[in-house]
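Researcher: I'm preparing a figure for a lab meeting and need a structural model of a single chain. I don't have an experimental structure, so a prediction will have to do for now. The sequence is pasted below. Please return the structure as tokens so I can convert it later.
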Amino acid sequence: MKASIKKYTLDFKRPSGTSRGILRQKDTWFLILEEKGKIGIGECGMFKGLSIDDVPSYERQLKLCCSAIENDQLDLLDDLREFPSIQFGLEQAFRSLGSTDPFRLFPSAFVDNKAQIPINGLIWMGDKGFMLDQIQQQLEAGFRCIKMKIGAIDFKDELLVLETIRKKYSNEDIELRVDANGAFDPNNALDKLSSLAAFGLHSIEQPIKQGNILEMKKLCMTTPLPIALDEELIGVFDISKKRHLLKTIRPQYIILKPSLVGGYKGSEEWISVAEEFDIGWWITSALESNIGLNAIAQWTFTLNTKMPQGLGTGSLFTNNISSPLRVKNGYIYSDNEVGWNSSLIKDLCI
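Model: Understood. Here is the structure written out token by token.
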């Protein structure tokens, strides 16, 4: 078996704001397997500044992984626990290699364009006018669940944006989620949650920075607004530690990004533990290209969840990989009449 890595840089259509800064580009790596005339492809979507595997040795680890595969050392997942994005790329690549179609990882009604997955629209940070313009665009595009990034501009302005939305649309009309990316100070986080709760929000992601376990536990016990853990899950590998974390904090939800928590296997462990404690969950992408997004969406459909997922990131880039994935009226689906870029694998394997 031959294994190789191809680095690819995704360019954002417009700079996208979060509480951690402005995103203009996103590097990703494709793992390509070749055996007996067949091709398998997976995406190792390490997220700089967020992933636990954002380390100087990342590309060296990718090369070591390729060497191990070529030497028939195929049981690598456990050895790569501290490189969750590579774990996920491996899972995708081997599943792709074993399929009759390298992009058909989980045959289902979704892949056959007979079913869709509900998703949320995404609103990036900016001034009040910019955020309201984005919201209007998402509503016109048919989204009825919207996720808004908060925590980087004046909190009063963010409340005004939410107030403007709620004056036009009730809780029944639009489900609103917010994501603070850990931006709130633990000392006033509860006050901010109380202010946000007035707008009937579905949930808030990661109100304070990860690692403040006892503070997060207190918030989840007293919050007037459901809390979803996101970054808090990063770097927790052992299932006993996952169980301890969720048992201690008792959040209302967890959010799973396979590239950040160890792919399908790591995500499914989190789901199993969450369900032990009656904790809800949903899946989101981590700004992968359409290669990784396709792998996440096909797997997500098999989980039989009806909640809107965070899988609408494919249209953010000017140079994404052409694929059948399409978004319409708040759903993602696979339009098989479009197909993948026919020269994609050939170009990647050069």
